[in-house]
Amino acid sequence: MNTLTKERIARKHDLARQLEEAADDLNSMITSYNDQIEASFAALEESQDHYNETVVRVNAFVGEVREVQEAHHDQKAESWQTSADGETYKDWIEEWSVTLSEINVGDRPAAVEDSGIEDAEMIRDLSEQP
Q1: Is residue 1 in some structural domain?
Q2: What's the domain count of the chain?
Q3: Half-sphere exposure (CA, 13 Å, Cβ side) for 94?
Q4: In which domain, by residue range, is 30 found?
Q5: DSSP 67-130
Q6: What are 125-130's contacts with CB under 8 Å, separation 24+?
Q7: Is residue 111 assigned to a domain?
Q8: Residue 23 within a domain
C-alpha cells in the first residue's frame, strides 16, 4: 500500500473529529466539575463558620453557668459542701465542665486539570502516504 484509500482518509478525519468532540466534552465536564466543587466547598466553609460561631456562643454560655454554679457552691458552708447535697451539687458542676471544639473541614479539594488531550491533532497529522 503506497497511500491510504479515500475511505481510510475519510475515516481518519472522521475519527479525529470524534476525538476532538469527545475531548471538548471531557474538558467541558472538567470545568463544570471544578465549578461545582468550588461552589460546594464555599457553602461547606460557610456552614463550618456558622457552626464554629455557634460553638463559641455555647462554650460562653456553659462557662457562665459554671461560674454561677461554682460561686453558689463556694458561698455555702463547708459542712454543706461535704454533705450528700453538696457532693451532688459538685457533680452537677462537673457535668457542666464541657468545652466543645470547633471543627475544620480541611483544605479545598484540588481542581481537576484540563485534559490537555491532543490525540485528535496527532491522528490528523498521521501521514496518508510514505
Answers
A1: no
A2: 1
A3: 6
A4: 6-103
A5: HHHHHHHHHS-HHHHTSHHHHHHHHHHHHT---PPP----SPPPPPPP----HHHHHHTS-S--
A6: 126/12, 128/3, 128/4, 128/9, 128/12, 129/2, 129/3, 129/4, 130/2, 130/3
A7: no
A8: yes
Tell me how long the chain is. Answer: 130
C-alpha cell, 13: 478525519
d(CA 105, CA 97): 26
Model pLDDT for residues 49-90, shown as the tens digit of each residue: 999 999 999 999 999 999 999 999 999 999 999 999 999 999
pLDDT in tens, 7-66: 999 999 999 999 999 999 999 999 999 999 999 999 999 999 999 999 999 999 999 999
